[in-house]
Amino acid sequence: MIPELYTIFKKHPTVSTDSRNITPNCIFFALKGDNFNGNSYANDALEKGAAYVIIDEEAYVSSERTILVNNVLETLQQLANYHRKQLNIPIISLTGSNGKTTTKELINAVLSKKFTTTATKGNLNNHIGVPLTLLSMNSATEIGIIEMGANHLEEIAFLSTITEPDYGYITNFGKAHLEGFGSMEGVILGKSELYEYLKANNKFIFVNGEDPKQVERTRDVNNFNFGRSEENELTIHFISADPMVCATIDNTTIQSQLIGAYNFSNIAAAIAIGTYFGVELKDIKEAIETYIPSNNRSQIINKNTNKVILDAYNANPTSMKAALDNFSNLTDTSKIAFLGDMFELGNSAKEEHQFITDYVTSLHIDKIYLIGENFGKTISTNKKTVIYPTFEELKANFSKLKSSTLLIKGSRGMALERILELL
Fold it and tell me: Cα separation of 27 and 14, whole Å?
């Protein structure tokens, strides 16, 4: 079935899973979700110009351009893997608890200086996004860069069997998706499934030599170590982050537009991978220095007389602490933090939110606003801390701010970028 479908795909190499975004002569895969049945949109997709539709319910067969399969999602994944096997190119996969998308974007910026690359768009890094990224690669692609996300065990292992990467990198192991992984040990095991695949298939791993957990798990496999220490195969020096990260390599200074010392390892990974693939240092420097973050990820926005560090795309205890440490170390005079709930922490939610509530009061931050149901259950006697269980309560009590530096950090579901409207 898949070889026959692949013959059709080669004639119509554009894939869509959204009937609202049909392009002429694409193939529409009628996926199902909790609140929708893609099969019911198949005929609509054909009317909008799709060449073929892939469905898994016989009742929706409407023409010879309707292809009935047992399971649309599995067919999409199998087709992507079949396509990957035809691609004679190296593929780099990366995962990790924090910094995946930023690191992927940096790696793509660097490698595209020398190669034609295809990389995951945005954070389409799950069991649907990974196949779609693979299927977007074509004969012009020289290197593929695949971001892989997971919130439970065996997910990275599964995505690895679809992607069949030649190279891999794990950004870090952090307290993310504890609800699904069960514990920090579960996070490490889950993310390390990428290492296990690469080791089992005699592939190659890039390793942050400053992370003992990574070093420990990659001793017996082909690897390339990078970091601040001279013991690494590639030494990259951290200079400063006040507020933008500055680094040096071989007497060349790289001044990024990324805020926070926690972004140094992301930048270092892009430098290391670029160096490994033979990108010239001047091109690496240009790629990193011209990369500007977007989508609420460590963006700096000037709003009236205030400077805003907007990091509202996502949050977990590890990334929250790193952002706060960096914010505390800034030399700005008036610093105000707006922190929103961290999601998917399961039974650890109460403990982790209380830890942040206690920890933030020890830092050089003038005022702290804690927002959300979980933070609303925490206790603080510190006078500089204000707790609002809902965003609406923050909005109702919000006072105009002048000449301050603001950190806005929270999980995506909190949508704390709404604070910009209050300014």
Answer: 6
